[in-house]
Write a structure and sequence with these properties.
By secondary structure, the chain is mainly alpha-helical. Helices cover about 45% and strands about 10% of the residues. It has a domain at about 1-75. It is built from 1 helix and 2 strands. It is flat and about 90 Å long.
């Protein structure tokens, strides 16, 4: 019976250690991810502001100055010409070829 208690204690202690180590790595990864997201958000805002300055887009900005979206107007023209050539035939009325080449041969037996 004491082996069973030792086994339960070992499993419990192993679970606690695993929980603590996992929590440490989770917090570390979360901190790194927040930093990366912040950098990407700043870069995206810079790109959108340059696009607005060039007249490519119109930004929708809220009262706090955060970009909520943008509008892109597209315009242009196209000159398209289509031309087709071909012969039409009715495939349902097409003559069928004989299946066996020997059917068309005449036999020359003496």
């Amino acid at each position: 019976m004491s082996d069973f208690i030792y086994t339960l204690a070992a499993v419990f202690i192993g679970g606690i250690i695993t929980l603590l180590v996992s929590k440490y790595y989770y917090k570390s990864a979360s901190k790194d991810l927040k930093g990366e997201v912040s950098k990407l958000k700043k870069l995206s805002n810079m790109i959108l502001r340059v696009m607005e300055d060039e007249g490519w887009v119109k930004l929708n900005i809220d009262k706090q100055g955060n970009i909520q979206g943008f509008v892109r107007k597209l315009s242009g023209s196209a000159n398209i010409k289509f031309e087709a050539h071909g012969n039409l035939s009715d495939a349902s009325k097409k003559t069928k070829e004989p299946k066996n080449n020997n059917e068309n041969k005449t036999s020359t037996q003496p």
